[in-house]
Every structure is written in C-alpha cells, then in structure tokens.
Design goal:
This protein is an alpha+beta fold and about 220 residues long. The protein is built from 8 helices and 4 strands; from the N terminus they run ααααββααββαα. It has a 4-stranded antiparallel sheet with strand order 1-2-4-3, covered by helices on one side. β3 and β4 (about 150-160) form a beta hairpin.
Length: about 220
C-alpha cells in the first residue's frame, strides 16, 4: 500500500513538473518580446504573472532579461524559418544563422547583438546551458568577430584555451539543437536543469543539455 502511494506521488510530481514547464514556455505564436517584457515587468516586482517562470529560470537576471527572453521565445517559435550552419575550427567556431523571413532575420540580428554585448560585459544570460558559464567566466580568452548579413549574422569566436574552445563548440551544438527543435528543445533543457536540482547547470561541464537524449546536428548540416 505504501509503495502504491509513493508511486502515485512520484507520477503526480512528474506530471506537475512537465505541466509547469509547458505552461511557462508554451506561449501563443506571435507574442513578441514587447508583450513578454510587459508581462515580466510585474513578475520582476513580485514574482508573479504568466511569464514569471521563464525569466525566473535564468541563472542571473538584470534589466534586459525579459527583453532577451522575448527574443529567444520569438526565435524558438519560428525555428522552422531559421537556417543555421556551424563550422568547428581548430580554435573555435564559425556559425551562420539566417532566415528568409525579414522579421525572423531581424530577431536573429538583435539576439546576436545582445548576446555579444552580454559576453563582453560579463552579464550572463542562461537558463540551462552547461557551456555558457565557462564562456562567461573566460570571456577575456575569447576573440569574437560578428558580421551582420541581410538575413542574419555570421559569428566567429576563437580561443587559445582548449577548455574554452570545447565550450564554444559545445554551445554551438546547443544552439543548433534549439534552432532545429524549437520549443521542444527548450523544454528538454529546462527539464534537465530541474532534474539537476536547485544548483542548476554544473559549471565547467563543457557538454550540451542534450547529453543522453539525442545527438546534435552534424557541424556542417543546415536546418
């Protein structure tokens, strides 16, 4: 009898966790980052509101967190319009992320620009990645070149530190999986982080969130 009760409780907890993640990220298509920013403004003040979940999941928060989360949301919801290729260099990566859709292309540019500035400033934006903490902790060892194109952005990041190179390449795989699978990849990542416990992503692991789930796309494949 006790075993049955424990089993039922475990199933309920699992279902509750899955529902929480789904409600946090499963927002309607077309909700731009402006709407999300407004919803998160109240959440930041009192920890409540529909978007309290996603922003609250960030390992660190600042004034730009809600807007950046909005951009991520828009890109994930339109992932089928994104084309991405990754070249793994001996000392880093070169990624090309573009879209034929003008709005998605603009969102790509805005996201790349914001994340590049965050890296330069050391303002981490991370939900579940195990590679981003390594990159932010070692940002002074990274050389970056960002080229905006008509349809998106070309990003080249290199380093002479082997650990940082591994993190750069691992993070490129993480982003490729997000571009390929959209919201389902985000939910997998959040579930993986929750499974780790309150500590969140383990710093310095250098592996993507898809470990043990499914392999990332090949380095030179396109969405």
């Amino acid at each position: 009898m006790k075993r049955s009760i424990k089993l039922a409780a475990g199933v309920a907890a699992t279902l509750g966790l899955g529902l929480a993640v789904t409600m946090a990220l499963g927002q309607p298509l077309g909700m731009g980052h402006g709407a999300m920013h407004g919803m998160d403004h109240g959440a930041a003040a009192g920890g409540h509101g529909p978007m309290a979940g996603p922003t609250a999941m960030l390992t660190k928060q600042d004034a730009g967190s809600a807007a950046d989360m909005g951009l991520v949301h828009d890109l994930l919801m339109n992932n089928d319009k994104i084309k991405r290729s990754v070249a793994k260099l001996p000392d880093g990566i070169r990624t090309v992320t573009e879209s034929d859709d003008p709005q998605v292309a603009q969102a790509i540019k805005a996201h790349v620009s914001s994340m590049s500035q965050r890296l330069a400033d050391g303002r981490e934006f991370n939900i579940f990645s195990t590679t981003l903490p390594v990159l932010f902790d070692n940002r002074d060892k990274i050389t970056s070149k960002v080229e905006m194109t008509d349809k998106g952005a070309i990003v080249t990041r290199t380093s002479t530190d082997a650990k940082v190179v591994a993190a750069l390449q691992g993070h490129a795989d993480e982003v490729t999986e997000l571009a390929r699978d959209g919201m389902s990849a985000m939910r997998r990542g959040m579930m993986a982080r929750m499974a780790m416990g309150p500590g969140g992503p383990m710093r310095g692991m250098g592996r993507g969130f898809n470990h043990g789930m499914q392999p990332p796309m090949s380095p030179d494949s396109r969405h």
